Automatic annotation (TrEMBL):
<comment type="function">
    <text>Involved in DNA repair and RecF pathway recombination.</text>
</comment>
<dbReference type="InterPro" id="IPR037278">
    <property type="entry name" value="ARFGAP/RecO"/>
</dbReference>
<protein>
    <recommendedName>
        <fullName>DNA repair protein RecO</fullName>
    </recommendedName>
</protein>
<keyword id="KW-0227">DNA damage</keyword>
<dbReference type="Pfam" id="PF11967">
    <property type="entry name" value="RecO_N"/>
</dbReference>
<dbReference type="Pfam" id="PF02565">
    <property type="entry name" value="RecO_C"/>
</dbReference>
<keyword id="KW-0233">DNA recombination</keyword>
<feature type="domain" description="DNA replication/recombination mediator RecO N-terminal">
    <location>
        <begin position="1"/>
        <end position="78"/>
    </location>
</feature>
<dbReference type="GO" id="GO:0006302">
    <property type="term" value="P:double-strand break repair"/>
</dbReference>
<keyword id="KW-0234">DNA repair</keyword>
<dbReference type="InterPro" id="IPR042242">
    <property type="entry name" value="RecO_C"/>
</dbReference>
<dbReference type="GO" id="GO:0006310">
    <property type="term" value="P:DNA recombination"/>
</dbReference>
<dbReference type="InterPro" id="IPR003717">
    <property type="entry name" value="RecO"/>
</dbReference>
<comment type="similarity">
    <text>Belongs to the RecO family.</text>
</comment>
<dbReference type="InterPro" id="IPR012340">
    <property type="entry name" value="NA-bd_OB-fold"/>
</dbReference>
<dbReference type="GO" id="GO:0043590">
    <property type="term" value="C:bacterial nucleoid"/>
</dbReference>
<dbReference type="InterPro" id="IPR022572">
    <property type="entry name" value="DNA_rep/recomb_RecO_N"/>
</dbReference>
Length: 247
C-alpha cells in the first residue's frame, strides 16, 4: 500500500553499489527509513531528491522494516545550507541530534516544524550561531534535561542576580552561590536569551542581533550542560567544532 508524507531527509546511507537508504523526519509519521533504489546513479530519478536536507513530498511503500521510495517531489532544497560548509555542519548537527533523540514512527509535528523553520532561516542568511543556540535550547526538552531557568534552583528566588550551575542543573541566586563554587557567572543577557529560547516558539522569535561575547557564553553553557546530562556523542558535533575553528 502506497503512503505519502511531507518530510525532510536527515540521514542518507549508501546501500550496495547503486542504492541509498534515506531517513526522513516527517510531519505525519515522525522518523522513517526508505530505500531509494538506484539513487547513486547519476541519471537516477532520485539522484537529486535523495540528498541530505531535501524537503518535499515522498510517496513510498511501507513495510515492517525499511520502506521503498516510489516518488519524491522536492519542495525546498535549502541550497545555501547544502553548499556552505559551515551551514552544512550546523544542519548536519541538528539532523543528527533529532535522529539520536527520536524513535521511529513517533509523530512529532512540533519538532518537524522546528527543524524546517531553522533550516529555512539559515538558508535565508540569518545568524546561524544564534539559530543553533535556539535549537539546542529547544532540544533540552526533547532530551528530558531542561534546567531550571525561571527561579533559583536552590531557594526559588525569582529576582536578583543569577549565575548558571551545571551541577545543580539551573540558575542560582546571589544568596545561593556557595552551593556551587564552580557556577558560571554569565551576563544577564545570556540567561535572558536562554529563557526566551526555552519559552517562546521559534516563529515568534525574530532575527535578533546578539553580541559576540553573549554568543560565546551561550555556547559554552549549553556545551557543558549537554556534555554533563545528555549522554550524546555526535559525529557532526566534532565536525562542527573543527569548522568553527577554521572561521
Amino acid at each position: 500500500m502506497l503512503q505519502k508524507a511531507e518530510g525532510i531527509i536527515i540521514r542518507t546511507n549508501d546501500y550496495g553499489e547503486t542504492n541509498k537508504i534515506i531517513t526522513l523526519f516527517t510531519r505525519e509519521q515522525g522518523k522513517l527509513a526508505l530505500m531509494a533504489k538506484g539513487a547513486k546513479r547519476p541519471k537516477s530519478r532520485f539522484a537529486s531528491s535523495a540528498q541530505l536536507f531535501i524537503y518535499g513530498t515522498f510517496i513510498f511503500h511501507q513495510s515492517k522494516g525499511v520502506g521503498t521510495l516510489n516518488q519524491a517531489d522536492i519542495t525546498e532544497s535549502f541550497r545555501d545550507v547544502r553548499t556552505d560548509l559551515i551551514l552544512t555542519a550546523y544542519g548536519a548537527y541538528m539532523a543528527e541530534m533529532i535522529d539520536k533523540l527520536t524513535e521511529d514512527r513517533q509523530r512529532n509535528p512540533y519538532l518537524f516544524e522546528l527543524l524546517f523553520q531553522l533550516l529555512n532561516r539559515m538558508n535565508e542568511g540569518e545568524d546561524s550561531e544564534v539559530l543553533i543556540r535556539m535549537f539546542e535550547t529547544k532540544m533540552l526538552q526533547v532530551a528530558g534535561i531542561v534546567p531550571m531557568l525561571d527561579a533559583c534552583v536552590n531557594c526559588g528566588r525569582q529576582e536578583g542576580t543569577f549565575a548558571f550551575s551545571i551541577k545543580e542543573a539551573g540558575i542560582l541566586c546571589h544568596a545561593c552561590y556557595d552551593v556551587d563554587p564552580y557556577r558560571l557567572e554569565a551576563a544577564p543577557g545570556v540567561l535572558k536569551l536562554l529563557r526566551l529560547f526555552h519559552h517562546l516558539d521559534v516563529s515568534r522569535i525574530g532575527n535578533i542581533q546578539v553580541k559576540p561575547e553573549t554568543k560565546k557564553q551561550l555556547k559554552y553553557i549549553l556545551e557543558l550542560y549537554y556534555d554533563e546530562y545528555s549522554g550524546l556523542r555526535l559525529k557532526s558535533k566534532r565536525f562542527l567544532s573543527q569548522m568553527e575553528k577554521l572561521e
